[in-house]
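Thread: sanity check for a docking pose with zinc ion

Original post by kr_44:
Hi all, I'm comparing my docking run against an independent structure prediction. Below are the sequence and the ligand SMILES. Could someone generate the full complex and paste the structure tokens? I mainly care about where the ligand ends up relative to the chain.
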Amino acid sequence: MNRWWKIRLTPRSPFLIAAKRITANDYETLDYIPARVLKAAVARAIIESYGGTPEDGTPPRYWVDPGLDPARCRPEWREWIKPFSEILFSDAMPYGAGRPPSTLLVCKVDPSHSPQDDLINRYALRKAVAAPGQLPPTVESGDAGEGRRCKECPQRLERWKSGWRLPSGGRQPGKVAHVQKRVFTRVELDVWRHTHRDEHLFSVAVGIPEALVGNTAEPLVFEGWIHAPEDVDLTLPPGFELRVGANLGTGLGRMEVEVFPEPPEDRKRWAEFGDWKKEVHDPSSVALVLVTDALYGVGGKRPVASLEENLAEYARWWQSRPSAIPAPSSLTVSYASIQYESRYPFVAGQPGIRTVDPLWYWLGGSLFVFSVTDPAEEEVLLQWATAVVKCGVRSDVSVQGAPAWSQDESPALSGSETTWTPVRAWSAGKL
Ligand SMILES: [Zn+2]
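Reply from moderator J.T.:
Ran it for you. Here is the predicted complex with zinc ion included:
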């Protein structure tokens, strides 16, 4: 059995997280903490507390493995060491906000107006296209927001673009938060001429410990989830600090961290399938939303396939995830609204080694409607979907790594990458 914890990080200094390169000399922090960055920050803190240098005969350590002697670490980390590879992190988002479903539309003029979810519309359209004989009397255009208007003003709706929608159960539910950034320009001096070198001027947009929530500045907090074996106590002492992200040597990335058991009502709310039932009246289907990113696969460019082939491949992916309740054998994905991204991350525990092939991620907010073709499996579908919400979805892929500085593309070592992603039932624009 496993147990859910929440991790809350309160920045105490500006931060630079997995900086995005905007142009050759411009970097900008992300506005959330990817799971891999968070896990690396914890691993670094454990390794630093372990001590040991080549001089005293202990080999340098780069990653936490069960071979570390817990007695040599600071007491707060002792519980973490043995099960470290089984402790899975999610991304940590501002105020614990999940990514909004990719079908959520907002007012073009005033994003504080209540958003509308377009899923039911699109699902009806998709079904109509799949079965042209049953075309409903009016089918709206499939374009996002086309023909749909805000309920609070006459403006059009558009796709969700930026910012984080605060979850219910917290303060100010529904308000939109934007992480605040400041730009620093840095120069590199030419040691001979004592002037700055033209091509060595770069700017860095760091995050500051403050977010704009609605129109007011509030202290920024990141929240994510940790999935750990049942018998492990992850509690850290009060006031504990972790350093997260890049450029830590310059004082960036100090964050106060708390780890506490997840309040049970949070996940209960995620497992409510009532909205879908009410709108669709079809007991053979359910809709699920990824709260954070999930690793979909590894390899070159995704082959262009038909929509039907893609949906069949998604269904196979879901069927082959480990789950407390096995997926129904007649499971299909009857609609999906997905956003992808490919990345070349560092291989966990291998400093300076990047994956040779791109890893493909489904971004948080990606949405799936699952159906069963066998009516006898309707009950199993609901049980499986509930188990997915309870446990999240885990994805492991084998990767080949090569040194990041090397031009030679031949793999130097192999490893594996894992994501573990919280999942929730779709709700009609609610949180
Ligand atoms: Zn409006």
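The mean pLDDT is 85. Hope that helps with the comparison, let us know if your pose agrees.
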